[in-house]
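Study this:
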Amino acid sequence: MNDETGKIVRLGVLFRGAAQVSLLVGLLAGLTACASSISPFTPPPADPSSPVAAAANAAAKDSKDAVAPRFIDIPAIPTDVRTPVQFKKAVGAEKIAADKLKRDTAPSTWTLSDTEGYASKARKIGKAPPSDIPTDADRAATEAFAKAARDRATAPPSKPQ
């Protein structure tokens, strides 16, 4: 389809006129922009009814007086950044470590053994605190305290009606 050069040449002739028209329109737009008194590089004035108009105009005025940075103000190239070769080595080391981890944790590469020995070691290390479950005597003492508190309690005075 595109191997027929005649079609491509005919399309170029058709669009050549359209391109010239769009170029002419662009040039005219550019000339009118240059002829206007407003420069595209100056900020427009702030709306006077805006509560921040004074601050915006002051900031715009300050930006006209600003000093452009100089080449000497560009900071030096940092020296503590890895070189591309160092990055490549680090990535390679991470890939090797990932492959080793996958090999070591693949299915059927490990089994559980001596689980009772492990559990007994864990029990020795983590001794459980004595049980704080209340006994019958504790429950009876709590009930006696609550009964004594209820007996001492008096009802609040009722409101006169």
Q: What stands out?
A: The mean pLDDT is 80. The chain is about 55% helix and 0% strand.
